[in-house]
Amino acid sequence: MNIVDLGLICDVEIEAGTVGIRMTFTTPGCPLLETLTAHAQEAAKKIPGVCGVTVELVLDPGADEPARKEKDEPNMITEERIYQALSTVRDPELPLNIVDLGLIYDVSIENDAVSVKMTLTTPGCPMHSTIKAEAEEALRKLPGIQSVKVGIVWEPPWNPDMMSEEAKRMLRRA
Question: pTM for the complete prediction?
Answer without folding.
Answer: 0.59
